[in-house]
Every structure is written in structure tokens, then in C-alpha cells.
What does this fold into?
Amino acid sequence: QLSGHSTEVKAKPEHHKFLIGRQGINIQKIRNETGARIIFPSADDTDRESITIIGTKESVEKAKNDLLQKIKELDNITEDTMIVDPQYHKHFVARRGKVLK
It folds into this structure.
């Protein structure tokens, strides 16, 4: 049976865009490699952390492991903000948005 198994993975809603990737490239790669169907919650869902994975037992397990690995990487990223006087902004943004070293 093609979709006999399902499981859920929890991820912070703010991580979803990184799991999906630009134009869906990250999630599409996992779908293509595993054959599993991966469903993210919509903005209307009450549980916005649960990502549903559907497929064969093997594809669900592989997709779950791949997603958990990516979630673990995202959890290790620390983000902070600071206020910088506008006169110094030119020193932080390089030409064409290149990242400064």
C-alpha cells in the first residue's frame, strides 16, 4: 500500500519556511528522495507545529529522520537583533547585498 503509514514531526512555525526552502527546494528534495508526502499546517490550523508525513513505512521513516536533522540544525541557530545608528548602515551592507566577512 502506497500511503499506509503516517507520522507527525514537531517544528516551530518560524522554522517552516527554512524547512521548505526557496521555491520549495528543500522539501521537494526530501519528497523526491523518500517518496513520502509531507504536509505543513496552514495558517488556519490550531496546531501550527505539527508536520504530517504520509507514505510507506520506509519512506515515512527516512523523511522523518531527514526533517528531524534539519530541525536540529535550525534549533542550533541563534538569532538576535540590535539597533545601529543609520549613519553606520553603509558599513554593514556590502554592494549587492553581499555578506560581510
Observations:
- The radius of gyration is 18 Å.
